[in-house]
Amino acid sequence: MRAARPTLYLLGDAHLGGQRPAREEAKQERLISFWRSLHGRNDCQLVLCGDLFDFWFEYRHVIARSHFRILVELAGLVNSGVPVDYLAGNHDFWLGSFLREEAGVTLHDDALSLEQAGRRILLRHGDGLMARDHLYRLMKRVLRHPASIAGYRLLHPDLGIPFALFCSHLSRASARDKHHDDTDYRAYACGQIDAGHDLVVLGHSHVPALLAHGGGWYVNAGAWMDTFTYARIEAGVPSLWQWDGQAGHPYQPAAGPGRSSVMDD
After folding, report:
1. Are 6 and 218 in contact (CB under 8 A)?
2. What is the three-class DSSP state of 91?
3. Residue 167 above 60 pLDDT?
4. If exposure means fewest CB atoms within 10 Å of the residue's CB, which of 78, 182, 243, 258 is most exposed?
5. What is the structure's pLDDT at 55?
6. β-strand pairing of 237-243 with 248-250
């Protein structure tokens, strides 16, 4: 278990590259302005809770040009002295050496454990935690298998990247006007708190959450792609915030426990 800096910033589910151009520009500009607000601070660290990209695949010699600017900004944040941890999400779990070696990001395939002010923090993206995710958990193992990665790499990037983004868009379109149900995520978090963790941080559900349980907290920063929300943990105490492009403001989730509407992309 690693020691965390006095202030932890957490955000996820930006799904860069997955929305209409106007939304993409707004999403990226706010993200860059938020990262720049952290530059050079030696008291904080950033955890990306998965799905920063709507699709990420590391070809041996190619990266998606649409992500160039965000990668430069991410490397700049690390170079300014702010450590960045990245939890692999279900849209970008083919993370590899580029982000680690060129951007200086610390990658985590699954969970990350940190300690801050004597409080134990468990962080995961959260995909596969729902009780009905049996098929997904199997598919995840297949997609992460080296043979699957090698096979997809045979596709030229000009085919492989647009095809993956198209499939991701179809998946999101099928979920439009439905609801994300985070009941299983809350149950998982409460179980981990009962088992000895003080804070459990998840992403994936797109539902911002700050739920007290026993002596601990379940935290979900929500989806940057929808609400520009993020979480902050200081001295073991969590809070939710929303970034307006220049500053953060306290954020109160509009939905109660269990369900939250999916926003149109």
Report:
1. no
2. coil
3. yes
4. 258
5. 83
6. antiparallel
Per-residue confidence (pLDDT) for residue 233, from 0 to 100: 98
> What DSSP letter does each residue of 206-234 carry, written as one string?
---EEEEETTEEEEE---HHHH-EEEEEE
Question: What single-letter amino acid sits at 139?
Answer: M
Beta strand spans in the chain (E): 2-3, 7-11, 44-48, 84-87, 106-108, 112-116, 119-123, 179-181, 199-202, 209-213, 216-220, 229-234, 237-243, 248-250, 259-261
Strand order in the sheet with 7-11: 106-108, 84-87, 44-48, 7-11, 229-234, 237-243, 248-250
Handedness of CA 169, 175, 181, 187 (dihedral sign): negative
261 against 170, higher pLDDT: 170
Q: Work out the average pLDDT over 47-65.
A: 86
Cα–Cα distance between 263 and 235 in angstroms, integer?
33
Name the average pLDDT for the chain.
85
Which one, of 168, 173, 212, 208, lies nearest residue 190 by Cα?
212
Residue range 93-147, pLDDT digits in tens: 678 789 999 999 999 988 999 999 999 999 999 886 766 665 655 666 666 767 7
R_g (Cα) of the chain, nearest Å: 18
3-state class of 100 per DSSP?
helix
